[in-house]
Amino acid sequence: MAEPSELTQHIESYVDTSRSQTQQAASLDSITSLVKNDLITIETLVKEMEMYLTTTDNVIRARGTVLLAEVLGNLVLKPLDKVTIHSLIGFFTDRLADWRALRGALVGCLALLRRKSDAGIVSATDAKAVAESYLKNLEVQSLGQHDRKLCFQLLECLIERYPNEVASLDELLLYGICEAVDGEKDPYCLMLAFHVIQVLVQLFPDPSGPLANFSGELFETLESYFPIHFTHPEGEDSDVKRDDLSRALMIAFSSTPLLEPSVIPLLLEKLSSSLPSAKVDSLKYLSYCSLKYGADRMAKHAKAIWSSIKTAISTSLKEPTKSITSESMDGLGFLENEITAEALVLLEIVVLQNNDLYLSLILDDEDIRTIFNIITSYVSYKDFSLQGKQRLHVVGRILYITSRTSVVSCNRMLETFFSRLVDVLKLSMRNSSRECVINFGALYLCMELFTAARDLIIGSNSSISADEACFCILQSSSDSLINALCSKLAITAKEVAHDVDVYFRVKSLQILAIFPEDHLPISKSAFENCLTILMSIILVDFNKTLLWKLALKALYHIGSFVSKCHESDKALSYTSIVVEKIVSSLLDDNFTLPLPLKLEAVSAIGASGMNHVLKIVQGLQGAIFASISDSFVHGSIRSAEMAIQLLQFYSEKVIPWIKETDGLEEVLLHFAVNIWGHVESWIFHDDQVYEKGLLDATMMAMKLTVASCSGEIQNAIIQKAYTVLSSNTSLLLKESSLTSIPIRLEGLQLTERANSFSGKDELVLSLFASVIIAVQPKIEIPNVKEILRLFLTTLLKGHVPSAQALGSMINKFGTKSNRADISYGFMLEEAIDIIFETKSWNSQDNGVLSSDDNEMGLTDLCLGFVDDRQLQINSIVGLAWVAKGLLLCGHEKVKDVIMILLECLLPGGSIRASKSKPGLSERISEKDLHPSVKKSAADAFHLLMSDSEVCLNRKFHAIIRPLYKQRLFSVVMPILQSSIRNSNSSFSRSLLYRASAHIISDAPLIAVLSEAKKLISILLEGLSIFNEDPLDKEKLYNLLLVLSGILTEKNGQEAVIENAHSVINCLTGLMVYRHMMLVRETAIQCLVAMSELPHARIYPMRTQVLRAILKAVDDPKRAVRQEAVRCRKAWASLASRGLHF
Amino acid sequence: MVLGLINANPVIYEKKERRVRGAPSDADEYAVEPIDEQEIFDILLNDTQKICIFKYPEHPYSLEELKVITEDAIEVNDHRSYVRVTFTPTVEHCSMATIIGLCLRVKLIRSLPSRYKVDIRVAPGSHATEAAVNKQLNDKERVAAALENPSLLDMVDECLAPTYG
C-alpha cells in the first residue's frame, strides 16, 4: 500500500485550482498509475476522496468529481467488479442533478458506460437509471459548449450501447432529445446531435410506434438547420467542415421515411432559394432521400420534382464561353455548374426509381414536345437564338440522361423521338442537296440519343440483348445517316460553316462509327465511306484547322476502337484506308499536306493501336531511308530537310512508343541494321558536302535506337557496325598495329582542312561513334585497342564525336578492382595507358620538330610540343571528353588530366612541363601557347561540369557517380584560387577566372554557398569576363543565377555584405546588358534582394543604384521595366523620405 | 473630425476578364516592347488598392472594381513620351478626387521613365469642381508643393504602400 499521505498530496494538488495545469495533469497521472498498479484500490481512493466528493464547497466538489471521473476514464481496461461499478455509476447518476459538479458527473458516466465487456460493464438497469436521471435533470441548451458536447456524447453512447433500455423510455426520450438538440449552434455539437437523431430513429422501427406521433416535432427541430449556413471563418474549427455538417443533416433527414411528408416539400421549396448552395444542397438531399424513402413514397412528388429539375437545369445554365475546339465537350458547350450536375444526378435517380411515371411525365412535357418547333425552324447553329440554344441543350441533356438509365426508358425515348428527328434530318437534306446544310438541332438530339444508347451498353457490360427495340430503331437509319453525313462533310470541307456545326458533324460520324458492333452493325461500305471522307480531309483539307483536327481526333478514336474490339473486317478497312494511306503519304511527295502535319497525323493514328504502330514504324523507316539516301547520294537539299524532320520525329515520338510496347525491339534492330546496310551501299563522291544537321539527326536517331535496345540486340548492332567500319573504310587499315599514330600523314593537312576524311568515312565514323556512345557498359566492343586508337587518331583531326565516343568507352570500362571477369572486358587502366602512352610521331617535314626521335602523347600535344594551334585545340577537346568520362565514373586519373588542362592555362606552362623531359626542352618554342588554345583549355572546364545532351548521360547508360560535380569543385577550386593569387599576367588570370566561373556556375549551390566568402570576388570577375563576349550570354546568365542563389541564403548574404560595393557595381553594369533580357531582369532582382541587407552597409550605394535604375525603367522589355520599378521602390524607401523627383 | 462616408453605397462592377498577353517574344532578344495602355493600367492597379481602403476601410474595393480607372480611359504614346489618364470619381462631389489624382500622378512618375509627360484628368462631367481639380492636378508647382508637405506625402506613401494578398 502506498503512503496515504502521498495520495492525499496528489489529490490536494489536483483539486487546488491555483496549481498550474501541468501540475494537475502530473498528479492525475500519478494517481492513475497508483490504481493501475494495484498500489491502491478504487475503494481506497474513493474513501480517501470522500471529503472532496461531498463537501459543500462547490469548487472543490466539482474538482473532486472531475478527478474521480478522469481516473476512471484512464482505467477503461482495468477489470472492476460489479459492485464497484454499480456504486460508482450510482454516484455519478446522482451527481447529474448537481449542476455545479456536472462536468465530473458527465465524464464519469461516459467513462463507465464506454467500458469494454471483459473489464466489467454497467448493468442495464443502471444504464436506464442514467438515462432517466439525464432526462430529468439536464437542460442541455443552458450548458457551456464543452458540457453540451459531453451531453450529446453521453446520449449517443447510451443509445448505441443500451438500445433496449433506452427505447423503453419512449416518448420521454424522444421529447428529451428534441429539447436537447433544439437551438444548438455549435458545429461540433451539431454533428453529434444529428448522429444522435439518426441512431435514435433506428430504435423505433415500427412506423406506427411512438415515432409516428413525434415525427412532426423531430422535423421541426431539424428543419431550422436546412440549408446549412456556415458562418465560421475558414481555418477555425477546421475539423468540422460545412460539407460534413451538411452530410450529417442529410443522413438525419433521410433516417426515417416518416419524415417524408414534411421533408420533400421543404426541399422543393428551398430549391427556389436564391442561394446557390441551398439549391445544390436541396438537390443532393432530394437524391439521397429519394433512395432512402423508396419509390412508393416518392411517387406522389414526381410531378413537382420533375418540374423542379427542369427549372433548376435551365436557370443554372450560363452563356457558353468555352470556344469550340477539338476538346471534348458536353452538350452545346454551356457551362454547367454544380446545380446542373446535381439536378442531372437527381433526374437519373428518380427516373430509375419510378421509371414509368417519369417517362410519361417527360414524354408529355410541353417544353420537350415543342422542341421540334424550334429545331425545324432553324437550320444551322448560328441561326439559333441564345434561348433556343439553351432549350436545345436542356432537352438534349434530359434525353441523354433519361435514355441512359435503363433499356426500357431507352426504348421509350427512341420510339418517341428518334424517327421524328430522322425525318427532320432527311427533310433538311433533301431540301438542300446541293448545299452544305443539315438540320443542326435534329442532328444534335440524334447524337445525344446515340451516345446514350452506347453508354447504356457500355455501362451494362454488354448484358443487354441486341434485339431490344431501341437498337432496331437506331439500326434502321444508321447507315443512311453515315452516308448522308459523309456527303455533307465533303461539302463542308469546301465551304464556310460555323465551328459548332462542323464539330457536331464530325463528332456524329465518330459516334456512329464506333458504336458497339454487336448492337448496331454498320455496313462495311458505310464504314469505309466514313473513313475515306475523314482521310480525304486529313490529306487535302488541311487549311481548315478545326475540321482537320476534329477529323484526326475522330480517326484516332475509331482506330483505338477497332484495335480494341478485334473486329477483323473493320480493322482491315482501317488498315487499308487509313494506316496505309498515311504511310504512303510519307513516301509520296504528291500530297500537298505539309510534313509537320503529316507527322502529327501519323503520330495520332499510330497512337491508336499496337498493330498500327508496327505498320507506321515500318513506313516511317522506309521514308527515312529513302530521303536519307536521296540526300546523301544525290545531295538533294529538300530531301535532307525532310530527312531531318523525319529523324527528329522518329527520335522524339516513335522510339518512346516502341519502348512502351513490348515485343517491338526487333523493329529497332531492323532500323539500325538497315541504316548500316544503306550506308554500306552508298557511293560517295569525294568532294561531296552534305547537311551537318542531317548527320546530327542521324547520329541522334542511331544513339537513341541503340540506347533503347536490350544488350543482345546492342551486340548485334555493334557487330554489324564494326563490319561496315572495317570493310568499307580505310580508317582501320592505317597502320593500326603500331603503337603510334602517324601525324605525318595528316598533320600538315590538319592546318589546311580540319575535315580531312572523305564524306563516307566521316559518316561511317560518326555513326560508329554514336553506337559506341549509346551501348550499355557490359557490351563487348570488338577489337577494342584498335578502336581506341582509331578514335584517338580521328579526334586529333577535330572529329568531336570520336572524342565523345572515347570518353564514353573510358567511362564504361569497369576498373580492375570491381570487375572479376578479367577475360571478358578490356580494362580501364589498359585503355588509359593506350590513350596516354600512344605516341604520335612527327617526321622531319613537319617543320616544327626536326628530329625523328620525337614521340609525343596526347598530353604533350596539349602542352604545345607542336606549334599547330588547331591540333592543340583538338587534343584539348579530346582530353576534356576523356576527362569527363573519367570524372563521371570516379576514377582518380582524372586529377592528372585536369592538371594538364590547368598547366595549359598558366603562363609558360608548356615550358615548366617540358622540364621533366630534358631532351625536348630546348627545342620547344619559347613562346607561350596561343590565346585561343588557352581559351579552349579554360572552356574545357565548362564541358567537364555541364550536363551533356549528346553523350555521357543516363539516357546513354553512362556510369555516373553521385556528387561528381561537388568533388571536382572541391578539388579544382583551391588550385585555381591559389593560381589566381600567384598569377602575375593579366591574361592568364582572366583565363583562370573564366575556368573558375565555369566551375562555379555548374556546381551545386550548396557547395558554392559554403565557400561564398572566398568565391564572391572570383564570381564577380567571371561575370565581367562573360560580359565581354555576346557568345557567352548563356554562361553569363547561369553565373548570375548562382549570385542570386547566394543572395537568398543567409551565409551568402554575409559574403555579399562584405563585398557590397563591388557586387553593386557589377549588377548595375549588367542591368544594361544588351544581349539577353533575362540577364537584365535577374540583375535587377538581385538588386531588390540586396535592398534587404543591413542599411548601414548599402546606404552609401543608394544614389548610385537609383541613378542606374533610371535607365532600366526605360528598358525595351516590359518584364525588365516592371522589375526596375520594384527595385526603385525598394531602394528609394531606404531613406526616410520618398523619392527625389 | 468625424468623416461620414461620401458614397456609402458605391456600385461595384465585376472585374473585367484581363486580356492575357501573348508570351513575351523570346524569339527576338532585341525587339522593343513599347509601353502601352495595358501596362499603364497594370501599374496603376498595382498598389493603389489602399487609396480607397486608406480613408474608408469599410470599402475594400479596388479602383478597378469601382470603375474609377479603366483601360479605355488611358492614352499612351510611347514614341512621344506622353500619357494621359482620365479617371472617374464615383460621385460628383467626391472629396477624394484630388487625392486619387495625386496618387495616380505620383505612382506614374515613380514607375515611368523620366522622359514621360504625365497628364491626369477627371472625366468630363463626372465631378462638381472638375476644372478646379484638373488645374490643381496638372499644375507642376502645386504638385511639387503638395509633395513638400510632409503630412500629404505621408498620406500618398501610405496609399501607395504595397498590399499583400
Protein architecture, described:
The complex is a heterodimer of chains A (1141) and B (165). Chain A is mostly helical. Chain A has a domain at 1008-1141: Leucine-rich Repeat Variant. Chain A contains 57 helices and three strands. In chain A, strands 1-2-3 form a three-stranded mixed sheet. Chain A is extended. The N and C termini of chain A lie far apart (87 Å). With 165 residues, chain B is α+β, with helices and mostly antiparallel strands. Chain B has one domain: GMP Synthetase, Chain A, domain 3. Helix content of chain B is 36%, strand content 10%. Chain B is built from six helices and three strands. Chain B has helices at residues 37-45, 50-55, 97-111, 130-138, 140-148, 150-160, and strands spanning 74-77, 82-87, 117-122. In chain B, helix 3 links the parallel strand 2 (82-87) and strand 3. The longest helix of chain B has 15 residues, at 97-111. Chain B is globular. Chain B starts with 36 loop residues before the first helix and ends in a 5-residue tail after the last helix. At the A-B interface, helix 57 of A face helix 3 and helix 6 of B. Chain B: It comes from Parasponia andersonii (Sponia andersonii). Chain B: InterPro entries: FSCA_dom_sf (IPR034904), MIP18 (IPR039796). Chain B: Belongs to the MIP18 family. Chain B: Keywords: Chromosome partition. Chain B: This is Protein AE. Chain A: It comes from Parasponia andersonii (Sponia andersonii).
State the main characteristics.
heterodimer; A: mainly alpha; Leucine-rich Repeat Variant; 3-stranded mixed β-sheet; extended; disordered C terminus; B: 165 residues; alpha+beta; GMP Synthetase, Chain A, domain 3; 6 helices; 3 strands
